[in-house]
Every structure is written in C-alpha cells, then in structure tokens.
Amino acid sequence: MIEENVGETDRLLRLGFGAIAFFFGIGVLTLLGRAVVGGVLLFVGVILLGTAFARRCPIKEALDADTSDRD
Asked: Residue 10: which residues within 8 A CB-CB, separation 6 or more?
C-alpha cells in the first residue's frame, strides 16, 4: 500500500490553492485568451488538487518530507 505523505493542513492548502489556480486558469483561457498563462494555471491547479485528493506528493517523496499525522 502506498503511504500518505500529505497531512491535513497541507491537504487543505492544496485544495484551496489548487481550486483557485484551476478556476483562474479557466478564466484566463476563456476571458483573456491567454493560452500559455491559462494552461499553466490549469496544470498547477490540477496537480495541486490531485495531490490533495491522493494525499501523496512525489516531490515530497523525493525530498523525503512528510507532513502526514501518522505515527
């Protein structure tokens, strides 16, 4: 089984910032027509939301960091 390395506070921050980045990305793409900026924001938002829901972050794993509350 894959062990979690994202704690509750970290997960909530990822959910919040991920949602903001995602919706700003959609707005920038549709309202301003800026494909690169909107695409980057969407990508960052999806990554943050995905790691929040999975409670697993490959960058944290590579850095041997763990914010989970497990013993």
From this structure: 67
Q: What is the CA radius of gyration of the chain?
A: 14
pTM over cut 0.85 = yes
DSSP codes, 9-68: HHHHHHHHHHHHHHHHHHHIIIII--HHHHHHHHHHHHHHHHHHHHT--HHHHHTT----
Name the residue among 59, 40, 60, 52 with its Cα closest to residue 16.
52
The amino acid at residue 16 is: G
Write down the domain spans for the chain: 8-62
pLDDT band at 71 (very low <50, low <70, confident <90, very high): very low
